[in-house]
Design a protein that fits this description.
There is one protein chain. The strands form two sheets. The protein has a six-stranded mixed sheet with strand order 1-2-10-7-8-9, sandwiched between helices. The protein has two domains: 201 residues, Rossmann fold; 103 residues, 3-Layer(aba) Sandwich (Rossmann fold), CATH 3.40.50. It is α/β, with parallel strands linked by helices. The chain is built from eleven helices and ten strands. Helix 2 crosses helix 6 and helix 7 crosses helix 8. Strand 4, helix 4 and strand 5 form a beta-alpha-beta unit.
Length: 326
C-alpha cells in the first residue's frame, strides 16, 4: 500500500515521470554516471515539482469546502504558476501574492499566471506571508472560503507528494536493477527534501538525499527541513523525529542571491541543453545543477557511482532571463 493511500489526493500530474541516464554529459565529465528524474514533465501548465504537492493540497482544499486558493512567491515563481493551473483545473479562484512591483513587460511564469486567470497582489519579499494571511482574512470577510497555501507548498500536506515520489523512484530503480548512490536537487522552501527524507525513511531506503540550497545557509535549511520532515512523517502515520544534522545540505552555491543568475547557472543551463537537450531554469535547477557539476569536478563522487539529479522544473522562467543568458 502506498505511503499516502490514506490521504485525499486529486490527480494532476502525468506520473510516473521519466527516469533516464545522461550518457553524453557523464562521458564528458568523466565522473559518476548521471541520471535525471524528469519532474519538469509532470505536465501541469509547463510542469514542475510543485504539481506533486498540489495533488494533495488541492484535494485538502476541496475536502474543506474551499472555493479559493491563494499562495505566495517571487514574480517568476514556478509554484505560483502551478498553483494557478491547479486551481483553474479544479474550478477554484486563485490569488497570488508576489514580491516586487508589476513589471513593464509580462513574460515567463508571470504571463502564464495571467493566462490561467490568477489575480495578482504585489508586496515586498519580507511582507509576503503577512500579506497572504491578511488576504485570507479579507477573502473570508467577503464571504469566500479561502485555502491559503504557504510558500512553495511546503507543509506536511504538500510534502507528502514527495514521499509518494520517492516510492515511485524506488520502483523505477528496482525495475532497472540500478543501485542509486545519491539524489541531488534544488532546495529552498524545504518541502521536496522533507518529503523525500520522510518517504525514504518510511520505506527503509538508505540513499543519500542532498539538497543544494538556492537561497539559505545550510544550518537554517537543515533545521527547517528536519522540522518539516518530522511533521510529514506524522502526517503519513509513520512518526519519526528527524534531527537537523541528519539532513544533507550544500550551501556553497548561493552566488549573489536568490534569482540572480551568474556564470555557474549560465554554464549549467547551456551545458545540459547542448549535451542532452534538457532545459534547466535560472533560479533553481540551474543553480543546483551547476553545484552538482562543480562537486563532480572536485571529486565528490566516485566514477562508478550512480548519481540522480531530480529535475524540479521551471523552464518557463528562462524567457524572463533571455538578456542574461545570451
Amino acid at each position: 500500500m502506498a505511503l499516502t493511500a490514506h490521504l485525499p489526493r486529486r490527480p494532476l500530474a502525468f506520473l510516473p515521470t521519466p527516469l533516464h541516464p545522461l550518457p553524453r554529459l557523464s562521458s564528458q565529465l568523466s565522473g559518476p554516471r548521471i541520471w535525471i528524474k524528469r519532474d519538469d514533465q509532470t505536465g501541469l501548465a509547463g510542469g514542475g515539482n510543485k504539481t506533486r504537492k498540489l495533488e494533495f493540497l488541492i484535494a485538502d482544499a476541496l475536502a474543506q469546502g474551499a472555493d479559493t486558493v491563494l499562495t505566495t512567491g517571487a514574480a517568476q515563481s514556478n509554484h505560483c504558476r502551478q498553483t494557478a493551473a491547479a486551481a483553474a483545473q479544479a474550478g477554484l479562484a486563485c490569488h497570488l501574492v508576489l514580491s516586487g512591483t508589476p513589471p513593464a513587460h509580462v513574460t515567463g511564469n508571470l504571463l502564464l499566471d495571467r493566462l490561467l486567470g490568477a489575480r495578482l497582489h504585489w508586496t515586498t519579499r519580507e511582507n509576503r506571508l503577512p500579506r497572504l494571511a491578511a488576504l485570507t482574512n479579507e477573502l473570508r470577510a467577503a464571504g469566500r472560503h479561502p485555502y491559503p497555501i504557504t510558500y512553495g507548498g511546503s507543509d506536511a500536506v504538500g510534502a507528502s507528494g514527495y514521499a509518494l515520489a520517492v516510492e515511485e523512484l524506488r520502483a523505477q530503480v528496482q525495475a532497472l536493477g540500478l543501485k542509486l548512490d545519491a539524489i541531488v536537487f534544488a532546495a529552498s522552501s524545504g518541502g521536496t527534501q522533507a518529503g523525500l527524507t520522510a518517504g525514504a525513511w518510511a520505506l527503509g531506503w538508505d540513499v543519500s538525499i542532498l539538497g543544494i540550497s538556492v537561497d539559505e545557509q545550510a544550518a537554517d535549511l537543515q533545521a527547517k527541513v528536519a522540522e518539516l520532515a518530522t511533521a510529514t512523517a506524522a502526517h503519513l502515520r509513520r512518526p519519526h523525529v528527524f534531527a537537523a544534522d541528519e539532513i544533507r545540505v550544500n550551501a556553497d552555491y548561493l552566488g549573489r542571491g536568490y534569482g540572480v543568475m551568474g556564470d555557474l547557472e549560465r554554464e549549467a543551463i547551456t551545458l545540459l541543453a547542448r549535451t542532452e537537450a534538457v532545459l534547466l531554469d535560472p533560479v533553481y535547477t540551474g543553480r543546483a545543477f551547476g553545484g552538482l557539476l562543480d562537486m563532480i569536478r572536485r571529486g565528490a563522487f566516485d566514477p562508478g557511482q550512480n548519481v540522480l539529479f531530480w529535475h524540479t522544473g521551471g523552464a518557463p522562467a528562462l524567457y524572463a532571463y533571455a538578456d542574461e543568458l545570451l
